[in-house]
Amino acid sequence: MPQWVEGALVGRAGELSRLTASVDRAREGRPSAVLVAGDAGVGKSRLLTEVARHAGACGVRVLTGHCLDLGDVGLPYLPFVDLLRPLREEPPAAARRPAVAPLLAAPGAAARPEGADDRLQLFEGVAGLLGELAAEQPLLLVLEDLHWADRSSRDLLRYLLARLVDEPVALLASYRSDDLHRRHPLRPLLAELARLPGVERLDLAPLPDAEMADLVRAVAAGDGGVAEGVVADVVSRAEGNAFYAEELLAAGVRGGALPLGLTEVLLTRVEELGEAAQQVLRVAAVAGRRVPHALLAAVAGLDGPALDAAVGETVSRHLLVVDPDGRYRFRHALLREAVLADLLPGERTRLHAAVAARLRADGTGTAAELAHHARGSNDLPAAFAAALQAADEAAAVGAPAEALQQLESALTLWPAVPGQHAAVPDGEVGLLLRAAAQARSAGELHRGASLLRAARDLVAGRPDPALAARVHHRLAQLLLRLDDVPGAVEAAERAVELAPVEPLGPDRVWALATRARTAWAAGGQDDIGEQAAREALEGAEALGLEDAWSDTVISLARMTGGGDPGTRTARLTEALARARRAGDPDVEMRAAFNLASAAYEDGDLAAAAGWIDPAVRRAHELGVEWSYYPAELRYLQVLVRIGTGDWDGARAAAEELGRVPDTAAHVRVAGLHVAIARGEDGLTEQVEQAEAVAQRMGRASLLLSAGSAGVELAGWRGDAAAAVAVTERTVRRVREVWPLDFLVAVRLVALCVGTVADAAAAARATGDAATADRWVQTGERLAELADEAQAVFAEHVGPVLWEGRAWALRLDAERGRLHGRVDPAAWAAVVAAFDGRDVHERARSRAREAEALLAAGDREAALDAARDAHAVAQQLGARPLRARVEALARRGRLDLGLPGVRVADPAAVFTPREAEVLALVARGMTNRQVGAALYISEKTASVHLSRVLAKLGASGRTEAVAIAAERGLLP
């Protein structure tokens, strides 16, 4: 086969230097990674090709993998299969790393991993294999078009960048920045990777006009040059995009008028080819972006010489490029898209059929590829069978999102393949159950619920009560996770009614176990729940269903408290072990979450972290990090790290993730609390968006995270009205979701009443009694919401745990401030309640305690409290809290002993008479009242006040009082 080489790189000197420096670091034994971003056609692939050429010349081994856009087809680990392809000829690689066999073997021929644990082994196997290769020879890994990467490949990339920290490996990954819409799954991964040590980001901006002109001239040189007028025209139209420029130039210099649209340009160039060359492009477009010569030869219908001539024509016209492994690829994905769009329906169908037949004949196609091409050729039975096989393969390697994609494709085909129905266990209902299970593992809870509702409708009235019970108990479990407790109770009750008592089967046991869970969630149904749990335990023991036994034990531990904490922990630990032994990740994660949340509720954050961190890692290994309980564990991980003062760790846990489903949005929102507490800029839009999503979705944990973020942000900005509005909206919505368990209202109200108390105090300081009274009434109205939440919780749920008690104390102390009371003891109690459980809340309360002690005249104790709060604020980087404590120190003339926090002396600023005037103005007196009090004229009082305003740089009386108070200059 002929080989062609593209011309030299023009421009991009700075970018090329950065990337070759990354390769040179690998040659010196230091790992590095660069994420190369740019619009389609800006020159990413061309730049990476040049870097790979440099690496090869320097003795660095280059492995390249390409991501592929196949629409609705998911190909787990496709770029890594491509990247590792050269190693298939090196048998020792597979022998020393058996776990990597699925990626090294020919597609469709490799044994697939059968358990979820194999995901970790696969990841570690790939990392170990690359590390061994790098030990022999420095390594450059190139991943192109990361925006098309499947979820499993993104996970593996994340793992490799975290794992390969000592090996001489350079990794370059490119992606289209213009393809990354707001909800693109690559966005959060990029944010995470950019924070890893040794990972850089390189943005390829459009080329400047001068470099574009050089590029146009260089490209045209092979055709005898081009007029400067054409150069100017191409540069103007290309707008810095190298690919656009080359395509415009290629169309223009061959005698045709320059098209207005890029697609027209591309198709114009295709139409200039001979018929055989056009046929080659059409086959290549349908087959994929990278096509083996054998496949092209088999489908194109051309003999050897004719095929070589046709391929040569496409390559010489810069439409196809020959990779080092002999595969053909489109020079740019946009070209392939244009060719595909121009195919007639019948022609596209015939080509898909031919490609599918060839893949089946030589055994080189994966099930996902076969499903894609079979469906494209309208061979629906084959597409259906391949989709089911592809779903199994994706699930086996921990890729639930891709498995769901394939199962939904099969469900779409179901009505058209009646001949396939008999081979599917439980028919369409069974298929819906499988899809719902994968949706649950992928964190797509709403999608899973929709699938189960469809199954429920199908199974209604059918003579299979066990299957109907299975549908209902799985629906109940999913509805619980969506905070639809009434719907979950109804579904669980129906499952128990349907499940046959005799003979006892797994569906009966699970129906009873699920009924126990819903009884606990509903509240007031403990007797029903305990009875169902006892029956479920007996049935689980009889049938040896360890996962059902574990699930029931967890419910009992939560319903009854499990007795003393030691007994509860022992039972939950046993449930965790049994669930893992049974191979049920969902129950295993539920056990881990309950162990962690029980420790958190006891106020033992270290113990909670001890359960959370391994469980989060385990969920990632199993490929279920976005199923319900792993997401809740991640949320709890953020809260624990915030509480212990590990704010950087909290931000990392909240933001290091890949695609975040809506049902786990509260994890990311929780990280906003760190940004707010640190006083970062530009948070208003993020907080508003978070609250809008929370109000729409109605998830209680998301409502709490978004609502408290909004209240906190308004509080630090002193916007009491905004804080009140957010609090009332959030409490109202949370109560709709959790009518008996809306105790989170206490926290929201306590935060808000603190801001309202500040507003009331400011009004009192300026003598505005009416405004102060209005704020007091507002604060009391809010406090009634918290009182009601506490009463409902005590009646229907049970005793309040440490967090609820701490926030109740905080609310009581804030209510005292609201009414102008000075109560240091109340704040000391709040400090003690948060001690060891929430570093920031303790420090904030300590600052309030200092304020109260100062007002009570205990300056020494006030100084100790202020120093304590200030030290924590500095350690955490909590700028708003630090500013508040420093302002208090200035007002109260407390010497914190820190640079920049000076104790002001009013005598050094004001004359004695000016100080007297300022003190009376601060009490709300008019100039006439001030004059009468000081036995001076109103005019003299006005003169003294004018001097005070000038010294403070204030424009009015109120501003002068505020500035003086902030600077500690009020007598």
TrEMBL record:
InterPro entries: AAA_16 (IPR041664), P-loop_NTPase (IPR027417), Sig_transdc_resp-reg_C-effctor (IPR016032), TPR-like_helical_dom_sf (IPR011990), TPR_rpt (IPR019734), Tscrpt_reg_LuxR_C (IPR000792), WH-like_DNA-bd_sf (IPR036388). Residues 903-968 form the HTH luxR-type domain. The keyword Amino-acid biosynthesis does not apply. The keyword Ribosomal protein does not apply. CDD domains: LuxR_C_like. Keywords: ATP-binding, Nucleotide-binding, TPR repeat. TPR repeats lie at residues 469-502. This is AAA family ATPase. The lineage of its organism: Bacteria, Bacillati, Actinomycetota, Actinomycetes, Geodermatophilales.
